[in-house]
Amino acid sequence: MSLIQKDLNPGTGDQLLTLDTDTNLEWLNLTATANRSANEVLAGFGGFTTTHGFRYAIGGDIGVLYGHAGITKGLTEPAFLPSPNDSRNHTGIEVLLDLMNGKQYLAAPSSGTDSRIMSYGINGGDPLWFVRYLSLNITRPANSHTEVNPLQSLDYRAHYIGSYLVRNAS
């Protein structure tokens, strides 16, 4: 795995970046833009797309990031079918959730359901925008996967959704 946590503001310990050394891209932590709509981020919230030089990641960017983390379920493999990659996939999601943060814990309401840790992020598109999510299934690791759904509005915001922003490493 070629993912390293870094500071956005050097020496502060903020750990808001994940560097993919294979692509030389820096990814902003999802919590930095949580509860902000895509329009707010595009308009300059936090200076991420202006001062700091980030852009919205497109699906291909995210697919490469997920692949470098070892995530396959929901990308190159069906989300809920057994695979020889189940363990690697589960570990990849766990590592990426730790690096990018934006986690929401969903406890199982009963013994018949799964406990999961979820992460949601908006990715840019032309013309379509999407919300991608990672699901770390604690109860059944083989069911850990990623999915994507259309973003209904560029003004939509939620406390648990951040934006996948990326830039070239300096």
Count of extended strands: 10
Residue share in helix: 10-25%
Q: Indicate the mean pLDDT.
A: 88
Beta-strand fraction estimate? 25-35%
Categorize the overall geometry.
Answer: globular
* Class computed from helices, strands and strand pairing: alpha+beta
Low-confidence stretches: none
* Distance between the ends: 20 Å
Describe the structure.
With 170 residues, the chain is α+β, with helices and mostly antiparallel strands. It has one domain (3-168). It has three helices and ten strands. The strands form two sheets. It has a five-stranded antiparallel β-sheet with strand order 1-2-3-10-4. Strands 5, 6, 7, 8 and 9 form a five-stranded mixed β-sheet that branches. The protein is globular and about 45 Å long.
Secondary structure topology:
Blueprint: E1 3-6, E2 17-20, E3 25-28, H1 38-42, E4 55-56, H2 59-69, H3 86-100, E5 103-106, E6 116-123, E7 130-137, E8 145-150, E9 161-163, E10 165-168
Parallel strand pairs: 6-9
Antiparallel strand pairs: 1-2, 2-3, 3-10, 4-10, 5-6, 6-7, 7-8
Short description:
With 170 residues, this protein is an alpha+beta fold. Helix content is 18%, strand content 28%.
Summary keywords:
5-stranded mixed beta sheet, 3 helices, globular, 5-stranded antiparallel beta sheet, 170 residues, alpha+beta
